[in-house]
Specification:
By secondary structure, the chain is an alpha/beta fold. It is about 45% helix and about 15% strand.
């Protein structure tokens, strides 16, 4: 379909460099038609208001790791849950909150019960305001098998949170820039996820701060204003 239509298409915008490079390799569109344009997902004024809303009483003052996404195979939350079981051995006061709904909810609930973590892991379902959870979490972990680009990572970065994510060679890898902007672990690898979390916990505060600053600066590419500015530039070239 793309090949048939390509001659009549003026421009193709790509949300990540990995998508752009993939389309270049496929040779469906001429390279000059392909442009990088980050999606407009950050409404900064709205985020700064929503992040200050109060958490549920059961999470007030709690140290918690956060995961967000549809409860699907792609998001690989079973890996995060089983890894958290091991993390608790060293940090027993931690909690894990997962926001989102989907077809794997029953399966994940059963896994939580099987691991006897009912009082430590909370599958909270869909939440309209995720920013108050991001703003209050200790760190954000993405266990997804692939993302393009990975909006929740960008939102977490904008809110100055440390991000740990699977190195899927897609959007997450690009956003965290070879672990310069956070921590990448081997895709679908429990031991690697645990190792990166423990590295985060023992790392110097200034090194963590540097990663946060780099990720926040990158995340600003996804603001409404920068999207509008870059789209205008693309169309005027």
């Amino acid at each position: 379909m793309w090949s048939l239509l390509s001659k009549n298409i003026y421009l193709v915008t790509c949300p990540t460099k990995s998508t752009l490079n993939k389309l270049v390799d496929l040779k469906v569109f001429s390279k000059d038609k392909l442009k990088l344009l980050y999606d407009p997902i950050l409404n900064i004024k709205s985020i700064n208001t929503k992040k200050l809303e109060k958490l549920d009483d059961k999470f007030k003052g709690a140290d918690f790791i956060l995961g967000i996404g549809r409860l699907t195979k792609q998001k690989n939350f079973s890996l995060l849950i089983s890894s958290f079981k091991e993390i608790l051995k060293k940090y027993p006061d931690l909690k894990l909150i997962i926001l989102g709904d989907g077809e794997e909810r029953y399966k994940l609930n059963q896994l939580v019960k099987q691991l006897s973590l009912d009082e430590k892991i909370f599958l909270e379902g869909y939440k309209k305001n995720t920013f108050k959870y991001i703003y209050n979490c200790e760190c954000y972990i993405s266990s997804s098998l692939y993302e393009d680009p990975g909006f929740t990572l960008i939102e977490a970065g904008f809110l100055n949170k440390t991000v740990i994510a699977a190195d899927s060679k897609t959007g997450t890898s690009e956003i965290l820039n070879n672990s310069k902007n956070g921590f990448l672990f081997e895709n679908n690898d429990k031991e690697s996820l645990i190792d990166k979390y423990l590295l985060f916990k023992r790392m110097n505060i200034n090194e963590i701060k540097e990663k946060k600053i780099k990720l926040k600066n990158f995340s600003k590419n996804f603001s409404f204003f920068n999207h509008y500015k870059n789209l205008n530039k693309i169309l005027s070239d």
